[in-house]
Amino acid sequence: MLAVGSGEAQAPLLSHIPFLVTDGGAAVHAHLVRANPIARLLATGERKAVLAVSGPDGYVSPDWYGPVPDQVPTWNYVAVHLRGTLRHRPEETLRAHLDALSDRFEGELRPKPPWRTSKVTADRLASMMRGIVPVELAVESVDGTWKLNQNKADEVRRRAAEHMEGEGFGQEAALLADLMRSGPEEG
């Protein structure tokens, strides 16, 4: 989720966007619908922004810890926050960005033949591209954050991980369970 302070509104502007991290991680390339409030704000100049990337997450019942007194429910998670300066990219970079984005995500659908922008007529593609703008977040810092029951004894944490894998819910509960098992020094 992309977050940008509007300067005028009390709350930041937010947008869920597809993106690609450039080689070396110095920048993130994305696009916004031209009517998006963030895109309109960028028309006045670059802005500081945060891209929050969520990893696996899920609810942890206190019952999963076993006979350990005074436990409370919690939410375990893994996330990365990329902070930097958001700006427009040149319009002529948009087609290559869309092709790279499609290649990345269509690759996850193998063995299905990949969809390509060439499957859209030139007029229709040009029309659709007029409705979006390419943007870049120049990454200035990366902050990882996680809560995986690091404050629990290994046995208790592993017991909760077993329950997470078998009964848990949330995004990628099995992966979250693996991370919970590995321990804070390894995770």
Structural class: alpha+beta
The level-1 CATH class: Mainly Beta
Beta-strand fraction estimate: 25-35%
Look at the structure and give the mean pLDDT: 93
Helix segment count? 5
Strand segment count: 7
**What is the CATH superfamily?**
Electron Transport, Fmn-binding Protein, Chain A
CATH architecture group name: Roll
- Rg estimate, integer Å: 21 Å
Give a description of the structure.
The protein has 187 residues and is α+β, with helices and mostly antiparallel strands. It has one domain (2-91, 130-180): Pnp Oxidase, Chain A (Roll), CATH 2.30.110. Helices cover 28% and strands 33% of the residues. It is built from five helices and seven strands; from the N terminus they run ββββαββααβαα. It has helices at 37-42, 94-106, 122-130, 154-167, 173-182; strands spanning 2-4, 13-15, 19-21, 27-33, 47-60, 74-88, 132-147. A seven-stranded antiparallel sheet has the order 2-1-5-6-7-4-3. Strand 1 and strand 2 form a beta hairpin. Helix 4 (154-167) packs antiparallel against helix 5. The longest helix has 14 residues, at 154-167. The chain is elongated.
